[in-house]
Input
Amino acid sequence: MLSIRNIVKQYAGHRALDDVSIEVKSGQVFGLLGPNGAGKTSLIRIINQITAPDSGEVFFNGEKLNQSHINQIGYLPEERGLYKKMEIGEQMIYLARLKGLSRDEANRRLKIWFDKLGMETWWKKKIEELSKGMQQKAQFVATILHEPELIILDEPFSGFDPVNAEIIKDEILELNKKGATILFSTHRMESVEELCDSIALIHKSHKILDGTVKGIRNSYRNATYWLEYNGAALSFDGKQPFEVIEETAGDDNEHTIKIKLNADSSSNDVLQYLLPKTRINMLKEVIPSMNEIFIQKVNQIN
Amino acid sequence: MDKILLIIQREYITRVRKKSFIVMIFVVPGLILAMGGAIALIAKNSDELTDKEVVKVIDKSGVFAGKFKDQNNLKFETSTQSLADLKADLKKDESLSALEIPVDYAKKNAVKIYSKKKPGITLTQKIQDEMNDIAVSAGMLKNHIDTALLHSIKSDISLDTVEITETGDNKTNLGANIGIGIACAILIYLSLFIYGAQVMRGVIEEKTSRIIEVIISSVKPFQLMLGKIIGVGLVGLTQFSAWIILSIISTKIAGHAMSSGGMLGALAVLQTIPFGKVLICFIFYFLGGYLLYSALFAAVGSAVDSETETQQFMFPITLPLLFTYILSVSILFRAPDSTLAVWLSIIPFTSPVAMMLRMPFGVPDWQLALSMVLLVITFIFTTYVAARIYRVGVLMYGKKASYKELLKWFFYKE
Output
C-alpha cells in the first residue's frame, strides 16, 4: 500500500536519506529501525508530506502521494504535544476535524474510545492537568480517531508505563487486525520481534537491510546450537558431527556447550551421536535476535 | 479551505472565551472614562494641588513694595525684617520664601529669592513676570507716560480657528483634532503590538508544545499561519467593535444625564471631525498594519524556541513603528501636513500610525489611496516572505536562528 522509491533528502550540510526504497504491504505491521539520527524521522516526515524529498517518489495505494491522502494517514510523532490550555475533548475533536471528520462523527467515536480506555472523566480537563502518561494516551487516541488506513507511530511506547504500554500495544494490534497498516519506528528491538511482520533498517541515511522478521532471522542462522546435558563431562575426539565453539562453566553434573554443526550434518545427527553417550536436556538452535542482527549490521557499516 | 476555517475558528474561540478577553472589553473603556474624568478633575483643580506659598518681600529700591498682586496660591507680604532674621524663619517653614530686591534691581541677577526648598519654575516665572510689569510701569511713570491709558490699550488675544471647506466654513478645534489624532495613533500602535505579539506567542506555543508536527501533518504550514493570523485579527476586531458599541452607549447615556452647556459644546466640536471616515480608516489601517506585522511576528515565532530568544528579531521589526509612534506623539501632531508626516503616512511600515495621526486633520484622497494600496501590496509581500521562513522554522529545534539562517530557510525548496 505504501511504496517508497529512491528517496533522496538533502539538508544543508548532510544527506538525511540516500536512495532509500521501502515497500510496505497492506495490513502489515512494519518496523522502521535505525539508530538515532539515521534518517527515520526525515522519512516519516516525507510520508506525512511535512517535507518533500529532493528526488524519488512515494506511492500510496498505487497513487502518487498527494494532499488527498492526508486524511488516510494518522501520525503520532516522537515528540508528543497537544495544546496545553485546551480542553481535551474539544482538542481531540479539533484534530479529528482537521483530518476531515465531521464534528458529530468525531464526537461519537471519541466517546467510544474514551470509554474503552477509561478516559471518560477527562473530557473537560485541560491537557496541562493530565499526567504525562495520560497525555500520551490522549494523543494516541487523536492519532487514530479518524480511522486512517496507515498509522505511523514514531517510538510509540516511549513515555508509557508498562501497564499502559501493554494497553496501547493491544490497541495497535487490534487496529491492525481490523485492516490498518502500521508503520512504526523504534530502536526498541524486543517490541519489533513481538509486533512486526517486516522491517527496514536504516543507518547513516542508507537502507541497509529489509525483509520479513522471520526471513531476516532465518538468514542469520548459522547452524549453531546450545546443548545441555547431564552426567560426566564429554570429551570429543574429532569424529563428532560438530565442533564446540564455546563451553560454559557448568557444575559437576550439568554442562552447557555451544556447538556448530559440520557442513553436511543436521541436528538429528547430533542427537544420534550423543544419545548413547549422555543424557541430553536440551538442544536448541541459536537464532540471532533482531537486536543482535541490528547491532551486528550497524557495526559492520561503522 | 475548510481547514483554514477550522483553524480560524479555533484561534478565535479559544481567545474570545478567555476571561481576560471579556474583562478587557469592559475594563478598558471604563479605565479610559475614569482616566478622562481624573484628568478633567486634576486640570480643574490644579491650582489647589500646589501648596499656598508666602513670599516675604524686602524691597530696598522702594519700587515694588505693595505692588505685587496676590494669586490663588501665592501671597506677597512686604517685610521690614532683616534678611538674616528672615532666613531663620525660612528654615522653619517650607512654604515661606524671601525676595530680596536691591536698589539697583535692573542689574543682571541682582534680585535674589531665598527658600528652604528649591523654588519651582512656575513660582520664579510668576515673580519675574510681575516684577517686569511693575518695573515697566514704574519706568513709564518716571517718563510721564499715562499707565491708565496703556492698560486700556493692552489686549488679550487668542485665536479662533476656522477651516475653509467646500461645504462652508467649519469651526475647527485644533485641540480635539490633536486629541483624536494622537488617540488613534496610540491605539493603533498598541493594538498592532498586542495582537502581533499574540500571533507570535501562539506560534511559539505550538512549537514548544510540539503539537506543530501533528497539525502540519494535517494542514499546510501556510494554512496554519494564515488561519492563526486571521483568527487573532478577528479577535482584535471583535474587541474594537465591543469598545465602539460600549462607548456609543455610554456617551448617549452621559449625554442624557448631563446636558450642561460645556458638554454640548464639547460634542459640537467633536462633530466637526469626520468620525465615519476616521473609523473606517482606523479599521483599514489596523487590519493592514496587523496583517503586515503579524506575518513578520509569526516568522519570528517560528524561528525561536522560546519567547526570550525573540528580542534580536523583534527590535528591527518594531523599530519603524516605534520611531513613528514617538515622532507622532511628540512632534508630528503639530505639523500633520509636513513633508515628514506625509512620507511616513505613505510608507507601509509606518503608515498605520502616521496616517491615523493625520486623519482628523484631513488627508488628501490621493495620499490616502496611495498609502492604502502600498500597505496592501506590502502585507501580501511580507506574508509571502514570512510563510517561507515559517514553514522551515516551525520544524527546527535547538538551532540558534540567525539572520543568515533565516535567509537560507527562505530559499529552501519544499
